Amino acid sequence: MNAPLIDPFARAIRYLRVSVTDRCDFRCTYCMAEHMTFLPKAELLTLEELDRLCTAFVHMGVEKLRITGGEPLVRKGIMTFFRAMSRHLDSGALKELTLTTNGSQLARFAQELVDCGIRRINVSLDTLDPAKFAEITRWGRLPQVLDGIEAAKAAGLRVKINAVALKGFNEDELFPLVDWCAREGHDLTFIEVMPMGDLGGEDRLSQYWALTDLRARLAERFTLTDLAERTGGPARYVRLEETGQKIGFITPLTHNFCESCNRVRLTCTGELYMCLGQEDMADLRAPLRASPDDAGLEQAIRAAIARKPKGHDFDYSRQAIAGQMTRHMSHTGG
Ligand code: SAM
User: Are 99 and 72 in contact (CB under 8 A)?
Assistant: First the structure.
């Protein structure tokens, strides 16, 4: 174990989100354009390079790895990577290996994920209506995702559903979603929509559904108790007293959560972003490819963490954040 990663504000970096691909089998309207140009293969980190990078972070104290995309489960050979990462769970260095997925490939991979030591997953699902699902994801089919979630549950994975709150789209599904999650035993988190994807000006504004409003509507039917639990990220949780359910709210644009921030994000091309709300990043692919020895890489990671800003405030333009999110294809809840 090398010296831990501590940033200039005495925050230990324990959480790394890794985007393993920019590709996805869905085209959610708020996330991607229908016709995307994806990165050439040479730009992408290979699975071996992803392993080296993640391992370097684990050796410097990262305890939680979240794999995301694009859609992580469409990356060819991705199970080899999960299997490789499971060695860090076995050694005790890594406390949690997890992923955020659209669920389309879960029927195929759920059992293997469990075998790799994964215990909990986040599945993104905004609606339980097949027609609306096809509309919002463009290419997705609801039954395939529901089968995937079922397979995950059957394999023993704990599932958290992440739903993007979209005004005029799934507003009327607030209670059906909550009830379905209660019945199925899934946790549920709502994500505030961020301005990206194909939603142009007017649409974008009209789809914004403030989570304060969503929360107020929940409170009309349930007794909400705020939970102290924080993950170092932009999620806050409440318990619905009547059902015992835990509901999360991810509000990257309207909440300040920086003081407890313990995370950094790596893109599939090896760019490390130190803050969700700022554009600064460090290229780790060059030092990674420069030498088979990890000394230069470790130095580059430490130099990047030394630049982690204290935080971002509400002044950052939504566009700047959206730019970063698009490149990551990963999200806070995500
Ligand atoms: N493909 C995987 C999935 O669907 O979960 C992982 C990547 S996806 C980009 C991660 C999360 O970001 C999903 O929950 C998705 O709904 C969310 N997301 C994408 N675009 C968003 C936006 N404009 N605003 C809020 N959340 C968004």
Answer: yes
Distance 302 CA to ligand 1 centre (A): 29
Q: Is the pTM of this model over 0.70?
A: yes
Residue of the CA atom closest to atom 10 of ligand 1: 334
Angle between helix 78-91 and helix 47-59 axes, rounded to 10 deg: 20
Task: Give residues with Cβ within 8 angstroms of 306, minimum separation 6.
Answer: 7, 8
**Phi, psi (5° rounding) for residue 2?**
-90, 175
For ligand 1, the distance from its centroid to the CA atom of residue 191, given in whole angstroms, is: 9
Residue 52 burial by CB count (10 A; 0-12/13-18/19+): exposed, middle or buried? middle
What pLDDT digit, counting tens, does each position of 182-241 carry?
999 999 999 999 876 665 555 655 788 999 999 999 999 999 999 988 777 788 999 999
Task: For residues 27 and 102, give the distance between their C-alpha atoms in angstroms, rounded to a whole number.
Answer: 11
| 330 C-beta closer than 6 A to ligand 1 | yes
pLDDT, tens only, 73-129: 999 999 999 999 999 999 999 999 999 999 999 999 999 999 999 999 999 999 999
Q: Say how many C-beta atoms besides its own lie within 10 A of residue 16's C-beta.
A: 24
Distance CA 155, CA 159 (A): 11
